[in-house]
Each structure stands twice: as C-alpha cells, then as structure tokens.
Write a structure and sequence with these properties.
Elements lengths: L2 H5 L4 H10 L6 H6 L1 H5 L14 H19 L6 H18 L3 H23 L7 H4 L3 H52 L5 H68 L9 H31 L9 H22 L1 E5 L4 E3 L3 E8 L13 E8 H10 L8 E4 L2 E3 L1 E3 L4 E14 L15 E11 L4 E8 L4 E3 L5 H14 L12 E3 H16 L5 H11 L12 E3 H5 L10 H21 L9 H8 L6 E6 L7 E9 L4 E7 L4 H4 L4 H7 L5 E2 L3 E2 H5 L22 E3 L32 E2 L23 E3 L20 H10 L1
Parallel strand pairs: 2-11, 14-17, 16-20
Antiparallel strand pairs: 1-3, 3-8, 4-6, 4-9, 5-8, 7-8, 9-10, 12-13, 14-15, 15-16, 17-18, 19-21
Helix pairs in contact: 2-7, 5-6, 5-7, 9-10, 9-11, 10-11, 10-12, 11-12, 15-18
Length: 796
C-alpha cells in the first residue's frame, strides 16, 4: 500500500503530528494531488547538501511546480482546491526557484514524519526517531520541565505586575502625604486662628494615616521584592539545571553521535527536537531577564531600605546570572549541522552547513550575520579553547569561505550552507619521529558576530569541526582514514584537541571495524571474522581470547604486517573498498567467507568433494580476492587445495566475480555443499550466442576467464573448451601457493593469472585462442599477409 493511502488511515495524535509538519511552506493539499508523483521520486537517495545533486534537485523542483500548475488547471478539481494549488505554485516559485535544495529538504522532512507516524501506528513498540514523535521518556521529562518553567514564568509576570501596581499606589500615597506635609508647613507659618488650628489638626491626622499606610505598603513592597528575588533565584537554578541537561547531555550526545556516524554508526538526528527545547529555553530566559530588569528599575526608582540587605544589588546579580545563561545558550547552539569531509583533499570542492538553533527566536535574521570559515591546526585549536576568543591566523587558504545566515520560514531554521568551499593551501607543522602528514589533524573554525535586544547584547560565536586530515594525493587516503577512524571512535567528550588514547581494548576496536564494514558493505562482521581480524591485528594466530588485550595505534596502522609492506589497517581498508565497490551483493548474500586464513581454508576444503571452493581475502595482496578449491590429482590419487592468483578491483571492473566463477567449470560446489549455480546463478551476466551488433556497428566481444592447462591437474575438468591441453603441465603451486603459470614455456618473466590486465591474463575471446603453447620464440609478423590472416579467420 502506498504511503499516502496508509497516511489516510491514521487517527488521533499520530495524525496530528503529521499535520503539524505541513503548512504554507508545503500545503497538505499539494501532497494530496501529487501523492503518486511524489512517492515515485527517489527522495531517500537525494542529498540536498551534496553539490553533485544540485542539478537534479533543480530539475525536480521545476518539474514539481509544473505538475502542480497542471493539476491546478484540471477540470476535475473544485474552485477552492484550484485556488489553493495556484497559491502554492506561486509560493513555490517565489521561495524555491532560487533555492530548490530547500524544497527538497521540506519534502524529505514531511515524508519522514509520515513514515514515522505510520510505523508507530502499525506497531506501537517499534523504535522511531524521537525528534518526530517525542516518545522518549527523557525527552518527555525535558518537555514537562519546560512547561513548568513556562508556567512559572507566567506566574512571575503576574507578580511583577502586581508589585508594579503596588509601587505606583505607594507613590501616589507618598505624594498625598507630601502634599499634606506642605499644607501643614504652610499653616504652621500662619496665625493660630481657630480655623487654622482645626485645619492643622485635621491635616496632621490625615498625614499620620497616610504615613501608616505608606509604612505598611513599604513593608509589603520589601516583602514582594524579596519574594520575587527568591522566586527568580529558584527559576534561575531550575533553568540552569535544565539548560545543562539540554546542552551538556542532549546536544553533546548529538555531537558525539554525529562523530560516530563518521565510522558508520546509525545517526539518529534529533537536532530539530533539540532546537525546539533551546527555543523554549531562550524564550523563558529572555522573559525572566526582562522581568528582572523591570524589578531592578522599580527598585532604583523607589529605593527602600531593607533589613535583608540591598535588594537592588541582588537583582543586579540576578540580571548578571541570567545574562550569563543566555550567553551560554546562544554560543553553545551555534553548531555544524553538516560537517565538512574529515579527509580533505586540496583543490577539491566541499560543503558544510552551520546553524544557530536559537537564531529565529532572537530575531537574529533581522540583521543577517556573516559567517567566516578558516582552517586551524591542532595547536591553534588548543589555544582557542584556552583563550575563548576567535582566531585571526589560519593554517591554510579556503576559497568561498564566507556566507550570510538566512532564516527559512518553512523549517524555522537560521543557517548558512557553504556549497563551494575549496582548500587551496595548507601550512603543516614540523613532524616528530614516525609522524606523517596523514597523522596531522586540523579543524575548520566557523566564526560569526551578531547583536540582539536592540543591539543591547553582542555575541561572538564560534565552533570547531571534527578533526580533518588534509591530503594532496589519493594514495594518502587509507592512512588518513585510519587517523579519522581512530579519532572518531575513541575521542572523549571535552578532551583537549585532539587527544586520543594510543591503545584501546580489542573489543572496542572490533566494534569499530564491524561498524565500518557494515556501513560500507551492507552487512557487518561475524564473530569468526572478528576473531580472524584479531589474529591479524596482534600478529598472533595462537591466542584464542583477545577480549582482555589492548591494540595500539602502531599495531593498527603504523607497523607493517609480518613479511608484508603494508599495515593492518591498509589491508582491512583495501578489503572493505573492494567489497563495497564490487562484492557488496555477494557479501550480503553470504557467499563470501572472506576472512579466513590459508591453512584453515585448506583444512576445510580437504574434507569436501573435489570441485568444492570458497572465496577468501588475500593475505599478500591488498584488496585481493582469491578462489580456493579442492581437486583430485589423477596421477597420485590424492586431493589437493589450489589457490587462484588474487583478483583485484581492476579485474572486477572488467568482469565480475560471479561471471569469473561461472567461467571456471571445474568449480562445482560453494563450500560446504551448495551448487555453484544455485549460489551465483542470479548474479551471472546474461549472454546469448547470437547477439546483434551494437549501435556503432561493432560486435561486442565477451571476455572469458580460464586457467590454461588445468585439465591435467583437476581430473579432466576443463575451465573452458578451448583450453590447450599441453599448455600447462601438471605441477605443484608455487611458493606463494597460488596457481601462477609463470613457468610455462614461452611465458618468460611475465606471470600469467586469471586477473584483469591484458598483459597478465589469458582471455578467450568468443572461443578463439589468441596464444599458442608452441610460441617459444618471437614471430616475425612482417612475413604474414594480414589479408590472408583475416580471410582465414572468416573461413573458420
């Protein structure tokens, strides 16, 4: 059932939650008339912040507006609906034509809200993102505390208003008392006539009554001021506790999860929910601050001595405290919503987005602030945190590094997206010991300044990105990702930039590798896979329990593996890369064992029938995948395990692994006993003998993998009918354990294997052998008539 059809079945709170995400920025009526069109588009695959998606986003926005105008002109709709759709089309053209990415964000947000509401309705126990439905117990507590503080602030407002009225009445009575005093003074200077004496007596009695009332009002005002100060003090304590919970717990947790997402951990992005809390907090703080300032002004207008001390000073102190809370909230909510790439190549375009969570509530967009981006070193980041001021010196040059924050009415977000930044130059620090440029960490510093409250308060805000490793060449990428992966996984909140431990427990490292592999390849690593990785990482296959062992940074990515010129991380990274790019579906289908040693593979295969094979990752070649199979030696009547020269990404870009397995007819069963075609048949590339010529008139050849001379080695099973029988005499595998026909006559020094490069592999093109086993010496092609050769080929 389509999502829109399911949506119409919602009721109660779930339906209300969905309705709340629609509005003038994207009316529900538009969702209704374009339901099928909207759901046919690949929104989940579209990233509005990705520069590579900009053109498609623009075309999609134009297409949506055209569809909307087409629907609005339809005769099937009533007059009111047509008006609504016309208004929406005009609004979309005015607001989204120059910013189609914003329209994509709005639609994705609406669809996600629908999806989560439907999930909750269909299965109340299902886990859905908290930012949409707010079902988390912790989140409910925060919302309840905010409601209480909001109510308390309203009650305080009433008390301030009553105290102000009381003070105004006091002033009026005081003026009356002063008037009586003036009259008494005037009568005192006049002759003591009977009338004057009576009038004087009357005025003195009235003044005494007024003075008694004034003393009572003064006492009442002092008590009210003290009560308000106590109440404000209590409110500040509660606000401070709740703000600490939101900023130091929830926002820090969001930042940590954002960092872990760089290692493949699923990121539950609840920044919108955090913004909602921060907006309510800043509203409460601002209202209480205004109340404190009003009482402070009233106290200064009418100073009244109190036995409890100077009440005016107390309110000034409260004003300072609450302004500090406001400053902390504003500066802490200047966050990087979309991080720049953590491995950054010079002269390569990249993007980033920063957002001020409380910007909308403080009307910062009325005077849009500028944001500037610079790149700073680890030492500069340390200095920045110690001095708590912005940096003027940079460690590199970034193009297009300034932008203006904009307020998006539809999402209530004040943000700026940098879409065309480019790092042109970088200044590096001196290296010590074994340090390399891929170990050096930088950070992007985002800075801005703005005023609020009629320019009463000036805020200078800044925030640092996660550590960035700068490279200049693609071959530096694996080591750079090692630095980033270790930092993302083991950085402690509140650390000194960018300190990380130099060794960590293996179980933590295993979890990181599992997450990385799962994110890249679609399925994680089994306990057996992780056990094998532990033996590689610690260079010890004898230990069975690694749970209490610590793996060091050097073991992870500095020290080469035994008898190899690459590190553990380089080996793992290459495997992850080839699996992601070429073996993803096979890995997810469970047909690739992969992480298994040569000896274990041999022991497993020797217990199976001839023709049984498995796929394992090469120990000796980065990103290599080898086929190990068991075959019967007819001369010695024994079983032997053979390893094919490893395939790499270059090979798979020419012919897929599944097709190569299909080519090798001696491979019969995927370990332990699954028929080859059953396991890989659905991944074979379809092929028919009579393929028509392509549009350019050429007939496309088919590359087929085969192993020359395999007949004598594997009990008469041939990898391909055209294989020469005398080409590859029986022999044991070479010292590397791979089948490598480098000892064949005429092969010279060039090893031949079932790989990708034409110089390294014997391909059979449409069944025609291109090489002859008798070609021991070079052939003089000048003596051959090419026309005769072509004619001969055709006649065959």
């Amino acid at each position: 059932m389509a999502q829109w059809a399911k949506l119409q079945q919602l009721q109660g709170e779930a339906l209300k939650q969905v309705q709340n995400v629609y509005g003038d920025h994207f009316p529900l009526e538009v969702r209704f008339v374009l339901a099928q069109w909207i759901e046919d588009k690949p929104w989940s695959e579209l990233d509005p912040d990705n520069p590579n998606h900009e053109n498609y986003a623009a075309r999609l926005a134009v297409s949506l507006i055209q569809e909307l105008e087409k629907k609005a002109s339809s005769e099937d709709l009533n007059f009111i609906m047509k008006l609504k759709l016309d208004e929406a089309a005009v609004y979309f053209r005015d607001h989204y034509s120059s910013n189609p990415q914003q329209l994509i964000k709005v639609i994705k947000n609406c669809l996600q809200a629908e999806h989560n509401a439907i999930q909750l309705a269909e299965n109340p126990c299902v886990h859905v993102p908290n930012q949409i439905l707010g079902i988390s117990h912790i989140h409910q507590e925060i919302s309840q505390h905010l409601d209480k503080l909001k109510k308390k602030t309203q009650e305080t407002e009433e008390e301030v208003r009553r105290m102000q009225q009381e003070q105004e009445s006091f002033v009026i009575q005081y003026q009356e008392s002063a008037k009586r005093q003036a009259q008494i003074q005037q009568l005192t200077n006049q002759p003591n006539t009977h009338n004057n004496v009576e009038m004087l007596s009357k005025l003195q009695r009235e003044k005494e009554l007024l003075d008694d009332a004034l003393r009572q009002r003064a006492t009442s005002l002092v008590q009210q001021r003290q009560a308000l100060a106590d109440r404000q003090q209590d409110t500040l304590m509660q606000v401070h506790a709740l703000q600490t919970r939101v900023l130091d717990d929830e926002l820090i947790k969001w930042k940590r999860n954002q960092q872990l997402s760089g290692n493949g951990v699923i990121f539950e992005n609840n920044l919108d929910q955090i913004q909602e809390w921060c907006e309510l907090l800043v509203e409460i703080i601002w209202q209480n601050r205004q109340q404190i300032k009003r009482v402070e002004m009233l106290c200064s207008q009418l100073p009244i001595n109190s036995p409890m001390g100077n009440i005016l000073e107390r309110f000034r102190s409260l004003n300072s405290d609450i302004t500090g809370l406001l400053s902390s909230l504003v500066t802490s909510t200047f966050v990087i919503e979309k991080l720049p790439p953590q491995v950054m190549k010079t002269n390569t375009r990249f993007t980033a987005t920063v957002r001020l969570l409380v910007g909308g509530k403080l009307n910062v967009h009325m005077t849009p602030p500028q944001v500037r981006v610079t790149i700073i070193s680890e030492a500069q980041a340390n200095s920045l945190l110690k001095n708590k001021v912005g940096m003027t010196e940079a460690s590199g040059e970034i193009l297009n590094n300034t932008g203006t924050m904009e307020y998006h009415q539809a999402t209530r977000q004040l943000s700026v997206s940098f879409r065309n930044m480019q790092l042109r130059k970088i200044k590096r620090a001196e290296k010590k010991g074994t340090e390399s440029v891929m170990d050096e960490k930088f950070s992007l510093l985002f800075q801005s300044e703005f005023k609020v409250g009629g320019e009463e308060l000036v805020f200078r805000v800044w925030t640092l990105s996660l550590p960035v490793v700068v490279i200049v060449h693609g071959n530096q990428e694996p080591h750079a990702w090692a630095t980033v992966t270790w930092d993302n996984a083991f950085a402690e909140p509140g650390r000194v930039p960018f300190a990380v431990p130099d060794k960590v427990p293996w179980p933590q490292m295993a979890e990181v590798l599992n997450m990385k592999f799962h994110a890249a390849c679609g399925q994680g690593l089994s306990a057996e896979n992780l056990q094998y990785l532990a033996t590689k990482g610690f260079r010890n296959s004898q230990i069975q329990d690694f749970s209490n062992m610590m793996i060091t940074w050097s073991q992870f990515c500095k020290e080469p593996l035994p008898d190899r010129n690459f590190t553990f991380w380089e080996w793992f990274y290459a495997i992850m890369k080839v699996t992601r790019e070429h073996l993803r579906v096979l890995w997810n289908d469970g047909v690739v064992i992969g992480f298994i040693g040569r000896r274990n593979a041999e022991e497993m295969l020797l217990k199976r029938p001839s023709g049984t094979f498995l796929l394992r990752f090469s120990d000796s070649e980065l990103g290599g995948v080898t086929i190990a199979w068991v075959a019967e030696d007819p001369q010695q009547e024994t079983h032997e395990v053979f390893m094919l020269q490893p395939f790499t990404s270059r090979d798979f870009s020419i012919r897929t692994l599944a097709d190569r397995i299909n080519d090798l007819k001696h491979l019969l069963y995927l370990y332990p006993d699954r028929a080859k075609d059953q396991a890989f048949g659905k991944y074979y590339t379809p092929f028919t003998e009579n393929q028509p010529p392509s549009s350019n008139g050429y007939v496309k050849p088919v590359l087929v993998t085969h192993i020359p001379g395999l007949t004598g080695m594997v009990s008469g099973l041939d990898s391909f009918p055209g294989t020469p029988q005398s080409y590859f005499p029986p022999h044991s595998p070479d010292t590397g354990g791979y089948i490598d026909p480098s000892s064949m006559p005429g092969s010279g020094d060039q090893p031949m294997h079932a790989g990708a490069a034409v110089s390294d592999m014997d391909y059979d093109l449409l069944g025609m052998d291109l090489m002859s086993g008798d070609m021991d010496v070079p052939v003089d092609f000048s003596t051959i008539n090419v026309s005769d050769l072509v004619a001969y080929t055709k006649s065959e």
